[in-house]
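User: Fold this; tokens only.

Assistant: Input:
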Amino acid sequence: MEISKNSEISVTTKHDYDRVSEVKAFDETKDGVKGLVDASVTKIPRMFHHKFDKDLSSTSSNITKLDVPTIDLVDIHQDPTRRKIVVEQIREASEKWGFFQIVNHGIEVSVLDEMKNGVIRFYEQDSEVKRELYSREPLRPLVYNSNFDLYTSAAACWRDTFSCLMAPKSPKPEDLPSVCRDILLEYTKQVMKLGNVLFELLSEALGLNPNYLNDMMRCDDGLAIACHYYPSCPEPELTLGAARHSDIDFITVLLQDHIGGLQVLHENNWVDVSPLPGALVINIGDLLQLITNDKFKSVEHRVVANHVGPRVSVASFFRSFQPSTRLYGPIKELVSEDNPPMYKETTVQDYVEFSMARGFDGITSSLPYFKIGNF
């Protein structure tokens, strides 16, 4: 393995490879994947090598070019007819794809651009500044590191991340990095408002009262934001930016830049979620699939690595982040004798802890383990 002389990671050969030592050395630099790129590596460390599923297409165009649905939210608050059309589009996309993009969603392009720029400013700070923030302590107001599952996954991903819990209680402003503090607070406010609208539309798509998911199920109780940085990769064919996984929340709102790399698994093919100017990507999470009794689908997705970079994205996860004894199971109004409940009730915390313990690593969703009869 070829490593720059500036890197603190030791060189290993095929016969004396020690993953534990390589991972520890990488983590102790506190420079993340960006540190490797800054050190001008030409070969990626073996700890980043992934095994790929040969049964799945590696591209989105092995048969025909597929496109994730795009839904225009224009006039949904003024025109009842237009709103019905949008609700039907969301229902169809949530059932068939589990993913869709939205335009005219109410968040100004200037806010989206500044959020992306804020992420870049964070990662382009001096290394000494970022090392002070690098940590694996989950209770910090801001958690910055490379790969949350670095020590448990079979292969690391070519990605660095900083994340913060923004709701129900926002962090103290002084606990957020000055280079992106203002935009983080503003973007959170706007995404929370959008999330409320999305849960109304999803409720209607289920045939329920518009306030059902917000008020009865409290799907919008919490929000965490993860800001990802995917540096350019010298050997993108050997690794991934994010391994195959589904999201352990109700919904995710994703802001991605123009580079792309996000892929969704649809009908056993990886389909590119091509960036659209001003659009946001919405995907159904495991918890929403559980409470809708499999009506809406939480679909596996991944991010491929790229020679081009850095790519940045901002993922906003809607679910409760506070310990609670509240149980979630299939919504009573959606089950019947012909459509019995498929899942046992669980708390959000129990589902999340179970899923996090399993990790990503290309392992399929945790939902089957919560199906009735599988406990």
